Amino acid sequence: MKKLNLPTGVENCINTITSHGFEAFAVGGCVRDSLLGRNPKDYDVATNAAPDDIIGMFPKTVPTGIAFGTVTVMMDSLPIEVTTYRSDGEYDDFRRPTTVSFGSKIEDDLSRRDFTVNAMAYNHESGLVDLFGGQSDLQNGVIRCVGKPADRFSEDALRIMRCFRFALRLGFDIEQETLSAALEMSGNLEKISVERIAVELTGCLAAKCPARLKTLLDTGCLTFLGMNGGSDLSRLDRIMNDRCARLAALLLLTKTENAFLKNLRLDNRTINTVSVLTMNSSVKPPVTAPDICRLLGALPYELSEQYYSLREALYDDDTKISRNMLRYVVDNDLPYKISHLKINGNEIIRSGAAKEGREVGIILNRLLQAVIDDPSLNERQKLLSLAVELFQQ
Ligand code: ATP
Ligand code: MG
Questions:
Q1: 266 part of a folded domain
Q2: How many domains is the chain partitioned into structurally?
Q3: Which of 24, 111, 202, 358 could form a disulfide with 17 if both were Cys (CB 3.0 to 4.6 A apart)?
Q4: CA 235 to CA 250: how far, in whole Å?
Q5: Are 251 and 185 in contact (CB under 8 A)?
């Protein structure tokens, strides 16, 4: 077994714990990713030391999940989650074990983990601890439950989504028995917190080829949130890898209402951005400057890449001319918003062209339409005369 590369902070953390007479291993995602030659997102360490022991060993710790045995140890600026070995107790709500008991052996801790590729531990002294064939599954590109899939998914239904997230993210296949059990039990997702589902779903969408999610969605497991199965998702893989663009595409392909996003309790910013994208994606890519300006009135410039990606992937549009025209509009500062007009509401009221807010709004809007068609009108004097003219109509 070759030596795995661990950051110095993790090595020091493990060494400190062992020098106090306890065991410590890097575990889970960081071992999986290191074996794959990928950069781990973060590092988890499992140990037989109790949380209080850990707090006493390091100068800087944060009790992030002390009830579950987790303490974050700060090694310089690297946060490491150090968790006491666990052997979970009974599960009664398809998600959380009713009791958390601390274990004394790394074997117990690994057997409660979800998939073989996530259930390996490593330190320099003992090498790789791989009790369930995780390394061979990594080599063969397989996601397989630790233990009996039906049991593991009924303990915690979130694992069903995690199973797809890992398969999609790593480009792995799901082992047959694991897949059958996941699909069979996917109705239990209804009992899982929607926030957790949202995290896993957006995680799935961030994969290179998220269209494989179809297998899971076709079971109708998210119908309770307003998303039906049965749609062709193949075009999802062509969408740029952007959270909002992918969510918008998923809604459009499955003919799902925007309410789904609210049901998932996504943040307002995401909900608004996805809604703007789904609303505007029915507009064909405009090719004239005025039409670009009108589109930009509804679709912020920052979302233009996402918009073009949706049009290309979902409607086979050629967007080259439109993209060039958009560049031209932006490079030349062509006006497309009320705030771009060289006149404001107060000036319109002073000119006598309008008396109150609503009228002012209507006039400003009509001025904008005129300026979009002929940008040379965007001068204070010309706009004032035009405003008076419009008022008289
Ligand atoms: P990522 O790189 O996406 O963070 P990860 O493997 O680190 O992947 P986490 O969600 O951070 O995933 O979980 C860390 C580890 O904890 C997993 O590798 C797995 O061993 C274990 N784990 C997490 N969630 C569960 C679960 N629901 N059931 C069983 N084990 C779990
Ligand atoms: Mg992780």
A1: no
A2: 3
A3: 24
A4: 9
A5: no
Helix (H, G, I), strand (E, B) or coil at 62: strand
State whether 305 and 366 are in the same domain: no
Which of residues 116, 131, 146 is at a domain's end?
A: 131
Q: What is the predicted pLDDT for the residue at 107? A: 95
Confidence of residue 358 (pLDDT cuts 50, 70, 90): confident
Band (278; pLDDT cuts 50, 70, 90): very high
Domain CATH for 14: 3.30.460.10
If asked whether residues 377 and 296 sit together in one domain, one would say no
Distance 44 CA to ligand 1 centre (A): 10
Ligand in nearest proximity to the CA of 165: 1
Q: Which residues line ligand 1 (CB under 6 A)?
A: 28-29, 41, 44, 113-114, 118-119, 156, 158-159, 162
The ligand that comes nearest to the alpha carbon of residue 26 is 1
313: Cβ contacts below 8 Å, ≥ 6 apart: 235, 236, 238, 239, 249
- Looking at the CA of residue 32, tell me the nearest atom of ligand 1: 6
Measured from the Cα of 156, ligand 1's closest atom is 27
Please report whether residue 351 resides in a domain: yes
Helix (H), strand (E) at residue 44: strand 43-47
Give the structural domain span for 345.
338-392
| Last residue in a domain, options 131, 147, 163 | 131
Q: Is the domain of 36 the same as that of 52? A: yes
**How remote is the CA of residue 309 from the centroid of ligand 2, in Å?**
30
How many Å lie between the centroid of ligand 1 and the Cα of residue 166?
A: 10
Mean pLDDT rounded to a whole number for the chain: 94
What are the phi and psi torsion angles at 79 (to 5°)? -80, 135
- Would you say residue 265 lies in a domain? no
